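Forwarding these from the shared drive since the link keeps breaking.
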Amino acid sequence: MSIEITSKIIGQLRQEENFSDWWKSSEIEIPFFDKEKLSIIFMDFEPEHDKTFIAEADQALTSFLKLNSDDRNAISNLAYKNCMDFLEAVEIDSAYKALRQIKNKNEIWNFIQPSEIYVTRRPYNERDIYIQIACECDWEQEHGLQLVFRQGKKLTRISDQDGHLTEADAYGKSDSEDKLLSQFNQKENKNETEWWKFWK
């Protein structure tokens, strides 16, 4: 028999049959994608071993669900760069003609299709909560695209879906060498004085 957990933000999540540490919600309107409805999955979560996960996840979701299309367009340049970097690495192909003809970088979102949202705890370093949006995209059909938001507040990674939440984790770098992640740290240190001491 399936087990359910309750989020104060997105309601009931049902335990997945094949992965006991995955919990899936019903479809939720996502303002970041013009209220497109997507399921949200709490991933790698064992309630008996992580007593604060749901509260921290709810806090991250509260921040993330405040993001809208303006916030999405604010990172269009990063999504566009991901696309152009891929196209520069492959042979000229007529299948990518529309992508090469993009004039306004905000148009890149017409070629990105979000599929699911995962909420998970980073297994290393500060062990913070991250929200990861898994997407299909028209240029990288094999590995797709992921958008990762630390604490649901700010984009800290955009890449193919490689199983890592941060560039630091993916490439064995320090967090200070991870450009987007270190920008988050600088912003948070400025606006939320010394919150990081709780992770020391």
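-- next protein --
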Amino acid sequence: MNYPALIIDRAKLQENTEIFSKRCHDSGISVAAVSKVYCGMAELVQAQVDGGADWIADSRIENLAKMRDIKIPKILLRLPMISQAKEVVELSDLSFVSEVATCKALSDAAVAAGKVHEVLLMVDVGDLREGVWPDRAVDVAGEILSMANIKLKGVGANLTCYGGVLPSGENMSLLVSVAEEIESRYGVTLEMVSGGNSSSINLIGTDDMPSRVNMLRLGESLTIGYETAKGTRVPGLHGDVFTLAAEIVEIQTKPSVPIGEIGRNAFGDIPVFEDRGLRKRAIVAIGQQDMRPDSIFPKDRAILVLGSSSDHMILDITDSDSDWKIGDVIEFNLGYGGVLAASTSDYVSKVII
């Protein structure tokens, strides 16, 4: 195996998807499995399809192109770029929109392609990322409904990704009220109300989740087994679908505080150190070009992550019971950001088991 390596357990990903898709389906909610965290690798997309996902959702056109031949409806999660309107219509069945100008470009592309493209109007219910403000949503929906070869599938909202606003009965009901006002004014029926991402899963089966909310976009919960509202493990789901493995290239005993005047490091930060005396330190051949040091956790819990530069990560192995040697491989669990970074890095081998 070439290191560093991202080792991915396909069976565990499929099982996570099976378990949570059933929970959602039992509550009348369809599941859009978010594939962007693993860069749309086709074999992993297929695992989530086999696990019962109803949609595959990704933020990148390049990732959607990788899964072109997999038979499942596909969603472009990120707001489309007008410059990519042709590719959006070609590679996705549904895209999330908030701008009339973008919808017009999608309409033109859909007419040229001789197909109907579905869109979901994003409504900002308080998190202040994408979406029209609720008091404008009905008027914007009217303009979308007038466009050729565009079908308004429904409305959606995003929460916790920017402002950290938690899903609640109040903001879910606001989203539903927008959908119902659109239906009342224009005499249409909206098929979908998408109530957010993995931060919304705690509302499933509660009175705070309106019955009209019938789709969620799930990434973190299915891939690493966490809900994102409070950052807690989802009972019954695997948290070790992804493992990062990195090789030790140096082991030295050194002071825990650098010697000399402290300035800025390679990333412009002024580091702060705790004096713990002489410590046994290992360097592994991976760095910030490949991963996020705040989203990587040694499986050997006695090992501490001290920090990293572009290409090296420094570990304190003093308290570990293992007799680590040069050339040994240390394994790490990953948070969502860690999986995303390692998946994206061309310098990290991807190994599906």
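The mean pLDDT is 96. The longest helix spans residues 169-186.

- D.
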